[in-house]
Every structure is written in C-alpha cells, then in structure tokens.
Design a protein that fits this description.
Layout: H1 2-24, H2 38-48, H3 50-71, H4 76-84
Length: about 90
C-alpha cells in the first residue's frame, strides 16, 4: 500500500512538471491578448457549451441525489427514535 502511495505521488509530481513545461513554452502566450467581455463569455457558454453544461448539471444533480441517499441513516433505533420523538 505504501508503495502505491509513493508511486502515485511521484507520478503526480512528474505530471505537474510536464504540464508546467508544456504550458510554459506554449505559443498561445505569445499572441496579442484580447479582453473578453461578460457578454462574450455568456454567449460562448450558452451557444457553444450549452450541451456540455447541461450534461454536467445532470451529472452533478445525480451525484447530489446519490450523496443524499448514502447519508440517510436507516438503523432501526434511529427510525424508532424519530417516530417516538426526543422526549420518550
């Protein structure tokens, strides 16, 4: 188990180094930067990214419902306590 943890950490450090190297030498940073307005951002999100955002929303809703289901406590003593009330 300790070996797997160490290998995972080394792999993550290697991946981080590779990403920094690739992004640091990218030619995209040499271009003349344009300022993006909020209107352009909204148009891009609602036109170009509408379906991915919808799919992401559905996945997140499913994850929240699954988390709510897993958090439920259905042990018998807790169900009986809820039905009796706190005073009994």
């Amino acid at each position: 188990m300790r070996l797997m943890s160490t290998l995972t950490r080394i792999g993550l450090i290697f991946l981080l180094g590779a990403m920094i190297t690739v992004l640091g030498t990218a030619t995209i940073w040499d271009e003349d930067p344009k300022e993006v307005t909020t209107l352009q951002l909204a148009e891009t999100m609602l036109q170009d990214w509408a379906l991915p955002l919808l799919a992401l929303g559905v996945l997140m809703a499913m994850a929240m419902m699954g988390a709510a289901y897993l958090v439920r406590d259905e042990r018998r003593e807790n169900l009986e306590w809820e039905q009796r009330g706190e005073d009994a």
